[in-house]
Amino acid sequence: MTHPFLDLAPLSAARFAEIEDRVARLLDTRQDVVIMQGEALLPLEGAIRGAAGPGTVALNVITGPYGQTFGNWLRDCGATVVDLAVPFHTAVSAEQIQEAFDEHPAIDFVSLVHAEAATGNTNPVAEIGEVVRRHGALFHLDAVASVGAEPVVPDAWGVDLCVIGAQKAMGGPAGVSAVSVSERAWARMAANPGAPRRSYLSLLDWKERWVDGGRKTLPHAPAQLEMLALEACLERIEAVGLDTVTARHAAAAAAARAGAVALGGGLEPYVYEEREAAPVATTLRVPAGVVASEVVERALAAGPGLPLAAGGGALAKEMIRVNHYGADARVDVVEACLTALGTALAEVRSH
After folding, report:
1. How many Å from the N-terminal Cα to the C-terminal Cα in the chain?
2. 80 Cβ partners below 8 Å, 6+ apart?
3. How far apart are CA 256 and CA 146, in angstroms?
4. Who has the most CB within 10 Å: 17, 52, 88, 145?
């Protein structure tokens, strides 16, 4: 008996390349796009380890937990790391990036997370990109949470390594991801003796075995189901238009912020300024004396399946995250989340 998920014809190199081209159109980029066969941490780490090493002076911007991880990778590569950390309830500014260059003129690599779904902030990449370009540094951007929820245009912003994943705002699979790579980034990797080679992390292997050969022969068997799911995800976005998808996320985010304030009970947006709030997820601060994880547990008991989560680590006590992305980027989903949170908050306070 045949099975639609199991009895599949092999994915051809031509179809793989066609899916990469669709990702390039999504990002409006002329750079090489490589789809990697794993969750987005794979190209994020591969890009950093490929482009950074001893002699690299890296500005690592920390606006959430992923920025901390990238700093660890950069140090492990032997780079000199300048950490620029801002409070998680805010965003970094282009002025702060400029000040970092003024204080450390040798900076030649900048790592930034566009939107931190874990903390609910988003950073002004266009303005930051102008500063990075002026100083000639290589620009590495994690756009995993932002793509599909807000504009992501690496060429226009001067981003050399732009990593995306489909599992959040795009509403696609988690098992594959992609990175756009500029000519400058390829050159930096080629000149780095410590860049991964003959490794699953190696972007240079993909360039030499796939891109440089005209994308005729795949280096290894692709993740078939995930690639087909990514293709379907891109088709769905193309059918309605990327602007429609981003507008849906913006509407959900606006409803979440306004609804939380209207709900009362002490819930308030964790990210103070609306312009610094990510449209992929809205984070909320609970009132003093209330434990966020307890509120979420009660809300999910009453409404299983709602896209709610407590903050990670120490933030579990004070932060609630409303994940309005992908199929959940709808005002009615946000309203259901806030209703459940309001009831749960009242129950917690009454005990």
Report:
1. 56
2. 56, 57, 58, 106
3. 17
4. 52
The pLDDT of residue 8 = 84
For residue 25, pLDDT beyond 90: yes
Radius of gyration of the chain (CA): 21
For 291-323, b where at least 16 C-beta lie within 10 A, e where not — what string?
ebbbbbebbbeebeebbbbbbeeebbebbbbbb
Cβ(267)–Cβ(295) below 8 Å: no
Residue 184: burial class (beta carbons within 10 Å; 0-12, 13-18, 19+): middle
256-273 tens-digit pLDDT:
999 999 988 889 999 999
Q: Contact at 8 Å (CB) between 99 and 107? A: no
Cα–Cα nearest to 125, from 165, 156, 169: 156
Examine the pLDDT at 314 and tell me if it is beyond 90.
Answer: no
pLDDT digits (tens, 9 = 90+) for 11-21: 999 999 999 99
Q: Would you say domain 242-350 falls under CATH 3.30.365.10?
A: no
In CATH terms, 13-239 corresponds, of 3.10.290.10, 3.40.640.10, 3.20.20.70, 3.30.470.10, to 3.40.640.10
Phi–psi pair at 205, nearest 5 degrees: -60, -45
Distance of alpha carbon 161 from alpha carbon 132, whole angstroms: 13
Strand-pair category, 109-113 with 57-62: parallel
In whole angstroms, how far apart are CA 288 and each of 284, 285, 291? 13, 9, 8
Assign 297 to helix, strand or coil.
Answer: helix
Q: What is the pLDDT of residue 6?
A: 80
| pLDDT per residue as tens digits for the range 110-143 | 999 999 999 999 999 999 999 999 999 999 999 9
Cβ atoms of residues 308 and 320 within 8 Å: yes
Cβ contacts of residue 41 below 8 Å, gap of 6+?
A: none
**Cα–Cα distances in angstroms (integers) from residue 251 to residues 42, 104, 130, 340, in the given order:** 31, 40, 28, 20
